[in-house]
Amino acid sequence: MALAGSAWGRKRTSTVKVSTAETEAFSLYEAIGAFLAIHRLSADPAYYALAHEILSHPDGALARAVAVRTDGGVRLTQQDMAELGVLARTQPRDAPARPAEDALVAQLTMQLGDFSETVRSIHAETSDFGRDLIATAAAMRQADPASTRNYISELTAAMIERVRQAEARLAAAEQESEALRSALADARSDARQDPLTELANRRAFDEALSALAPHTPVIFALCDIDHFKRVNDQFGHAVGDRVLRAVGQTIAAESGSALVARYGGEEFALLLVGVDMDTATGIVDRARSAVAARRFRSRATDAPIGVVTISAGLAAGTAGETREVLCARADAALYQAKAAGRNQVLSAV
Predict the structure, then answer these.
(1) Are the CB atoms for 218 and 326 separated by under 8 Å?
(2) 3-state secondary structure of 225
(3) Between 17 and 117, whose confidence is greater?
(4) Which three-class secondary structure state does DSSP give residue 318?
(5) Is 176 a catalytic residue?
(6) CA dihedral defined by 236, 76, 78, 110, rounded to 10 degrees?
(7) What is the pLDDT of residues 115-141, one digit of tens each?
(8) By the 8 A CB rule, do 330 and 321 touch?
(9) What was the pLDDT predicted at 161?
(10) Could you tell me which of 120, 32, 121 has the C-alpha nearest to residue 81?
């Protein structure tokens, strides 16, 4: 906000001609703000600096690392940004990128190794218990009753202390391992969710398709928002994002048990299992009708956005087919729906 009141900000709104460099700088500034907003990151100076590096060097290692982490609509987390900060300090710009999940896997593997070492150490101590018992039993056979009682008391106290220490080490190792497992589960969940719509992303969709038995009949549906560029151009990307989220959530709400994913841009994919083409077409058409019935308005100005519609193409196949093959057929049907006037559902022949 302070920028708008600065001399630089005043120059942009005055009649003075703005240089190309200033225009590019302002565009970068806006892009950084949008980047932080999309990924729900605060305007922390460290995040701003990393975003500046990422966006000003789109072919660098940081940009490629972001591309890996955000593939299919994944949102960056604060932990991702911390790891990207380490990457920025330790790797040149042309170094290969590594997914954030790999770092957690490596950390968990290391911790599980430490846990195994703790168990081996405790096992070794239990073996020592046996040797101590044998030695003490031999000593007690040669000792008088008073000495025997002392041996038993000392041995019992020593064994109790060893057990206490072993239990404490096991509990600490288990707690740390559980924390890492939880962090890994969260990272995997984030990696499979589109941050804007909170639907599954392409990675989650592809994994669900791959997990089905090879000959399982499936219907692949591809939905696209009609004339979405008009919404972005007329009302701005913030409004466009809210429309995307609302459309995605509406499709999901009307699609029953179907897996609904944001497939990229303004496209959504549905995976329907155990239904025939007529049933699948009815499900998708119900979602289309629900979207068309909504009336969107701009929050900032309360101006009506108008009717937003979707077109959809469906293709029948089996889980053994590649996603590319199914998607190509569904996309061909979607293209026909667009060409036929939009706001309709067609299936591949």
Answers:
(1) yes
(2) strand
(3) 117
(4) strand
(5) no
(6) 180
(7) 666 666 666 666 666 666 666 666 666
(8) no
(9) 76
(10) 32
Q: What is the dihedral angle through the alpha carbons of 329, 333, 338, 340, rounded to the nearest 10 degrees?
A: 150
Q: Sign (positive/negative) of CA torsion 74, 76, 77, 81?
A: positive
Tokens 């077109």 locate to 311
Q: Which residue has the tokens 């719509």?
A: 197
By 3-state DSSP, what share of the chain in percent is helix, strand and coil, each rounded to 5? Answer: 65, 10, 25
Sign of CA dihedral 199, 208, 74, 289: negative
Burial label, 177 (beta-carbon count in 10 A; 0-12, 13-18, 19+): middle
Mention every residue, 6+ apart, whose C-beta is less than 8 A from residue 298: 235, 239, 304, 305
Annotated catalytic residue within 178, 266, 321, 324: 266
Give the burial string for 277-291 (b: 16+ CB within 10 Å, else e).
eeebbebbeebbebb
- pLDDT on residue 224: 96
Report the alpha-carbon distance of residue 93 to residue 11 in Å, rounded: 34
> SS3 for 1?
coil
Pairing of strands 259-264, 217-225: unpaired
Q: Which residue has the tokens 């790797």?
A: 91
Q: Which two tokens stand for residue 154?
A: 């000392």
Torsion angle, alpha carbons of 295, 256, 205, 190, to 10: 70
Is the pTM higher than 0.70? The answer reads: no
With bands split at pLDDT 50, 70 and 90, how would you rate the model's confidence at 94? Answer: very low
Query: Using N-to-C axis directions, what is the helix angle for 45-56 and 20-38, rounded to 10°?
Result: 120
Structure tokens given for 229? 């560029």
Closest C-alpha to 188, from 104, 85, 270: 104
Q: Which residue has the tokens 């969710």?
A: 193
DSSP annotation of 193: B
Residue 240 CB: number of other CB atoms within 10 A? 20
